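Ticket closed. Logging final result for Ferritin family protein.
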Amino acid sequence: MSVKDILKLAEFFEIEGYKFYRSKKEELKSKLIKDVFSYLQEMEKEHTEYIRKLLKTFESSEKLPTNIFENTDENFFLNRFKSQKLDNVPYEDDIKDLSILRMAFLIEKDFVSYYNKAAESAEKINQLELREILIHLRNWEEGHANLIENLIKEIYTRKSLDLGFYPFER
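Final structure:
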């Protein structure tokens, strides 16, 4: 894959992530989970804008910027959400939210996997700047997956669910 192909596919995935969070947050019952989805929706939008800047720079100069990392502190928001507890909602509402959270978790895991594989591809074509960008994006997505995983585990624990499996075994 070329640099442009890798970035265009990343852009597409981020757009789809944005659409998912935007549409699914309306179905959620827990205010905290809705807030998390609003945050994730905004992060996917920022990732899309970031990738578009990279594409524009690359298309005009055939080079990627060396100052590749945006000045964002996603950890501040991730930590804020991790420290909050889910609101007390009826069992049925938790189960509905759990279903949507599991979808979100799988999407984020797919993003992590894509960015890992794309970073390997970038290294093979000797695009080390691109590799670093992709690793940075992967780390952002891992943070999202961890946040969602914690919410899923909290519902499992709070409702004493024992499904015999966890969707996030890695």
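The mean pLDDT is 84. No further action required.
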